[in-house]
Design a protein that fits this description.
The structure is a single chain. This protein is of the alpha/beta class. It has a domain of 168 residues: Rossmann fold, CATH 3.40.50. A six-stranded mixed sheet has the order 6-7-8-3-9-10, sandwiched between helices. Strands 2-1-4-5 form a four-stranded antiparallel sheet, with helices on one face. Strand 7, helix 7 and strand 8 form a beta-alpha-beta unit. Helix 3 runs parallel beside helix 6.
C-alpha cells in the first residue's frame, strides 16, 4: 500500500475538522474523497501534506511514517498537493511558477522536465514568459498541475480541481488525470463533481462532519441511491461556478 492513514484527527481549537479518519491509496490507484462543503476534505489533505499538524493518528507513505515530518520531507518522498483555488503566483511568469515546483530538486533534469510540461500543455509554452495572471482559470489549473509534476510525485492530491472551470475544460482535466494515472502516478482526488469523480476513481470515501461514513468501490457507491441522496446531493455536480477555462 502506498499511503496508509489511520485514526487521523485534525482540530482547530475546539473544532474537530477530521475525526479518526482511516484511508488508503494503493500504488497507481485513483481514490476519491467525497462529501458536502464543510465535511473536512480540505483539512484532510492539508494534514496529509503537512500544512497542519494532526491532533492524532498516523500517516505512512510507502512504509515510512510521515506523521511528524515537514511538508518539505513529504514532497521529497513524492507527495504533492494541488490546492483548492490553484494558488499559483500571479505576479510571477509561467516559467517561474513551474520552477517553484522543483525548488527541492538537486538534479540536472529540471529544464527537460519543464520542456515535457510545455509539450503536454502547449498553451503554457506559448505564455511561458508572461505573468501567470494572464492565464484563464483552466490554464491556471494546468499550471498548478504542471508545477506539482515538477516534484516528480508518486502521489498527487488534488483539492476541488474542477471548481470554477467550464464544462469543456473539466472534461479535459479529468482526461489529464487519467493520463497521469496511466503513467504510474497515484491520485487522491477531493472533488464535488461526484459523478465524474466516481467515474474516474476505483474507490471512494465519503466524509461527513469530519468522519468517514462510507467507503467502497466507485461502482458500489454509484449504485447506492440512499448514499447519493444523503451525502452526495443525488450524485449531481456541485452548483455551477463562473466558467473560467
Amino acid at each position: 500500500m502506498l499511503l496508509e492513514v489511520s485514526g487521523l484527527d485534525v482540530s482547530y481549537g475546539r473544532t474537530r475538522a477530521v475525526k479518526g479518519a482511516d484511508l488508503t491509496v494503493g500504488q497507481g490507484e485513483i481514490v476519491a474523497v467525497l462529501g458536502a462543503n464543510g465535511a473536512g476534505k480540505t483539512s484532510l489533505l492539508r494534514a496529509l501534506q503537512g500544512a497542519v499538524k494532526p491532533a492524532g493518528g498516523r500517516i505512512v507513505f510507502d512504509g515510512v511514517d510521515l506523521t511528524a515530518q515537514s511538508s518539505a520531507a513529504r514532497v521529497r518522498s513524492g507527495v504533492m498537493l494541488v490546492p483548492e483555488g490553484r494558488q499559483i503566483f500571479v505576479s510571477m511568469t509561467v516559467h517561474e511558477n513551474l520552477l517553484m515546483g522543483a525548488y527541492l530538486r538537486r538534479d540536472g533534469a529540471v529544464e527537460s522536465d519543464i520542456d515535457a510540461i510545455y509539450d503536454r500543455f502547449p498553451n503554457l509554452a506559448q505564455r511561458r514568459d508572461m505573468k501567470a495572471s494572464v492565464l484563464s482559470g483552466g490554464e491556471q489549473q494546468m499550471l498548478a498541475i504542471g508545477r506539482a509534476m515538477l516534484g516528480r510525485p508518486r502521489l498527487v492530491m488534488l483539492d476541488e480541481p474542477s471548481l470554477g472551470l467550464s464544462p469543456l475544460f473539466v472534461e479535459r482535466l479529468f482526461d489529464l488525470l487519467g493520463e497521469l494515472n496511466r503513467e504510474g502516478i497515484a491520485i487522491l482526488l477531493v472533488e464535488q463533481n461526484t459523478t465524474m469523480a466516481l467515474e474516474l476513481a476505483a474507490r471512494a470515501y465519503v466524509l461527513d462532519l469530519g468522519a468517514v461514513v462510507l467507503e467502497g468501490t466507485s461502482a458500489e457507491l454509484m449504485r447506492d441511491e440512499a448514499l447519493t441522496e444523503a451525502y452526495l446531493g443525488g450524485g449531481a455536480p456541485a452548483p455551477a461556478q463562473p466558467a473560467a477555462g
